[in-house]
Amino acid sequence: MSDAPAKSSVSGQWKVLRTGGGGDGLEVPSLPLEARTAAGPIRLAVGPNDEARLLIPLAHGDHPQAIEPGPALRITTSTFTHKGRAARFLDLMCLSSELEGVFADLVDEMITRIESGSSISEAVSGTIDDFRALLVPASSREPDRNRIAGLVAELVVLNRLLDISNNAWRAWRGPAGDRHDFRIRDNSLEVKASLRAGASVVTINGLEQLEPPAGGALHLLHMTLEPVDGGLLSISALGARALAHADDPPGLRDMLAATGCNDIHDPGWNRYSFRQEAERLYSVSPNFPCIAPSRFEGGKAPVGIVDATYRIDLGFAAECALPPARLGELLKEFAS
After folding, report:
1. What is the C-alpha to C-alpha distance for residues 22 and 88, in angstroms, rounded to an integer?
2. Are residues 185 and 267 in the same domain?
3. Residue after which a domain boundary falls, among 135, 160, 194
4. Can you give the pLDDT at residue 70?
5. Cα-based angle 234, 239, 242 (whole degrees, multiple of 5)
6. What percent of the chain has pLDDT over 70?
7. Domain finish residue from 108, 135, 162
8. What is the number of structural domains in the chain?
9. Which pLDDT tens digit goes with each residue over 115-129?
10. Hey, how many other C-beta atoms are within 10 angstroms of the C-beta on 324?
11. Looking at the domain assignment, is residue 2 inside a domain?
């Protein structure tokens, strides 16, 4: 009988590793389990901050499919030295101590599936799909259709930027608290979505939203989206594409979470999908209809006016509309 720990005691083995126990020559603290792949024993390990961790050994030529895990679970491919030789692993790490019990159950289920003959990709992706609701913090409320459409429009722009450069997602500043959706240096872009063809009225959230950066320029992109069953534009599809192209998926995942979307596959965020009917770019110049501090005498809102949410009709901004080619030029500037 092997001395390796039984899979049912994974939580206890992580505790052993955290106190300095275990280890058999791998360069990170780990303990081998009885369960194996063709490349060797599956291992429990701990991360740099004592995170619960699972290392699934990969044979030469094994390339597991890309898996979108969610904000509480990190999945990478890692290479460590074991007794002088390089060993490659599918590396799963639980990033939330509160979810460690769920992660332990997830580990048990993955191991069961691998021992039953499932491939590593099938075992990992299938188990994560089954456990996804438990691995993702619940949203405070289900988003409405307008909120979903707004994020879809921003993700359309985000993916266009990532088509130019895989680090261009950093121009997406709205979720980080910037008053504009996208910003690079002193240039900003605000994205607005309407839900029916011909709609020209958009909501402006706050006095500062259409205030151009000091010494810079602000543009507004108005996108018309049509809700359709099975539409190609969904949070799941656009989010997965962006994460696959970004140079720092965890960083981008944090930005998505900041919008309230903790999981791009959350059914609540995917109740609606869309097709794009039209788009038009505007320069928020002095002739653009808006309420902003710079429009008031002295560059400040009247005393006692704290903030405002209002609606504008873009039909009155026709003279501020720009040719379609300008959008491509602008996106190249943001991707730089």
Report:
1. 20
2. yes
3. 135
4. 66
5. 130
6. 92
7. 135
8. 2
9. 999 889 888 888 887
10. 10
11. no
Cα distances from 191 to residues 194, 221, 261, 277, in angstroms, run 10, 5, 18, 15
The proportion of the chain whose per-residue pLDDT surpasses 90, expressed as a percent, equals 47
Q: What is the pLDDT of residue 1?
A: 34
C-alpha dihedral (269, 192, 246, 170), degrees to nearest 10? -120
Q: How far apart are the first and last CA of the chain?
A: 60
DSSP one-letter string for 39-91 = TEEEEEEE-TT--EEEEEEE-TT--PPP----TTEEEEEEEEEETTEEEEEEE
How much is the mean pLDDT over the chain? 87
State both tokens at 229.
Answer: 């069953």
Structure tokens at 251: 């960083």
- Amino acid identity for residue 173 in this structure: R
Backbone angle region of 117, left / alpha / beta, with phi > 0 → left and psi within -120 to 50 → alpha: left
For 129-169, how does the pLDDT look when each residue is reduced to its tens digit (9 = 90+)? 787 766 665 554 578 899 999 999 999 999 999 999 999 99
Read off the amino acid at residue 7. K
Answer for the pair 10, 3: CB distance below 8 angstroms, yes or no: no
- Owning domain of residue 47: 7-135
* Residue matched to tokens 């309420």: 291
Q: Which residues, other chains included, contact 188 with Cβ-Cβ below 8 Å and sequence gap of 6+? A: 178, 180, 181, 182, 212, 213, 216, 217, 218, 219
| 197-219 confidence digits (pLDDT tens) | 668 899 998 888 999 998 899 99
Q: What is the pLDDT of residue 331?
A: 96
Kindly tell me the burial class for residue 260, based on how many C-beta atoms sit within 10 Å of its own C-beta (0-12, 13-18, 19 or more).
middle
CA distance 59 to 38: 6
Instruction: Report yes or no: 182 and 172 within 8 Å, Cβ to Cβ.
Output: yes
